[in-house]
Amino acid sequence: MAAQLWPVQQAEKIIQKFPQADKYLLETGFGPSGHPHMGTVGEVIRTHFVAMALRDMGKEAVIQVFSDDMDGLRKIPTNIKAPWLEEHLGKPVSAIPDPYGCCDSFSGHMNNQLRQMLDATDIDYEFVSAAQQYKSGTYNQVLQLAMQRLKSILEVILPTMREENRQGWFPILPVCENCGLVNTTRVVGYNVDTATVDYQCDQQLKGAVGCGHKGTQPVGDGRSKFGWKADWGARWAVFGIHYEMYGKDLIESAKLSRQITKILDGKPPVDMFYEMFLDEEGKKISKSVGQGLSVDNWTRWGTAEALNYLMFRNPRQQKKLSRETVIQYMDEVLQMSAEAPEYRFIYFAGSRPSLPMSYSDLINIVSAVGVTDIGVLKSFARDIYGQLSGEQEQYLELLLQLAVNFYSDFILPERKFPRLSPQQSELIDRFINLIGSETDTDAIQTGTYTIAKEAGVPPKDFFRLLYEVILGKPSGPRIGGFVAQMGAERITEIIRRNLQHAQQ
Ligand SMILES: [Zn+2]
Ligand SMILES: [Zn+2]
What we know:
The protein is an alpha/beta fold. Helices cover about 45% and strands about 10% of the residues. The strands form five sheets. A five-stranded parallel β-sheet has the order 3-2-1-11-12. Bound molecules: zinc ion (2 copies). One zinc ion (ZN) binds near residues 98 and 109.
């Protein structure tokens, strides 16, 4: 049964491909040319599931979060207001000052931010900086090997490039010793034995302009880096990576990188692509557009465990993210039995107390009472659900905060209470009488139908009216159950108050 879970399948593939390894290296990449986002964290969470499965099989597994901080800055991120960065375009991001002034470099700041986000997840990982690895010589041998096998590398890479870009392409980019830029250099000669390159700093890339310097320098010790088409495959070879996941948009790059790894005497990792998340309209969610619900702002309305679940559910399936998605995942994750095979993956950071209510219930309560004070809501919940344990109370508080955020962001702005016609008023009065005398869930439900039918009103119109009057929106939970849960007195009070609101 457990073998059906995808992390287990992935772990089995890894062990099958690398049966001799005594420790498995699982990599995720991070581009620190801008602020980290939850997408990066999501990839680490998924990789963590595979690491857990490997550990279940008695294997050692290490997650390596690799920061590409040797990459040149191509453009100033729109959310960073530091026009002076212009003069640093084309420099490795680890050699650019921190725009916020608090860390040792531009990428130092982004790396620290990512580490904070990761530390909050309770996942063990090793953080690896490309710049540090290049500088300390980890790449030296493989850089030299790439020059020696240049022909094979060109045979693989050039056909993937546009004709006009092929001329003079070289897998290694020197860092100009004069101006410090890396995006503006080109290699014009090389010597495998001395592991040096002749280069000119005369290229232009976006806002970066080469200084014109010509020189000869060693490729090792951080004086150069692999260019982007060769970089990923070289990294797999240098570190002996066993596993990596990536978004669907990188399928072609991964294919290319597997070939590069082999040329550089490495063995390509087991890899897996995942589908991207879509927004409510079904469009791919873009990093640069920070609107609507996304993985980035998920934890404003959902728990970390609901996010884990989102990452756990078949990564090969496209998922739309909407406000309904948060509710759905929250409800499922709160109802998940501790015996379910995925439970321990979802709750890897600690289990939760069982609660007598769902997240939808809480959102309905907040919508009905129209209150955002957590203390008041907690006492409501206590009335409805009875005494809770200290642990349950604490968890409820967190869920209520999320439900309040949900209510404030999505429901309150659209909340509208109807003004009633005389006939509608009479129907509502009959409903109040009904719930005053009936306590049984089903009796309330059928009684509500009967009220509508007797008055010649389509029942669905009457239910809609009730939702609008009670919740300020056109749909909601099953009325019978909701009234029984909230209590007739409270519902009556809510109806009276909301109708008064509508009169004002
Ligand atoms: Zn900083
Ligand atoms: Zn230069």
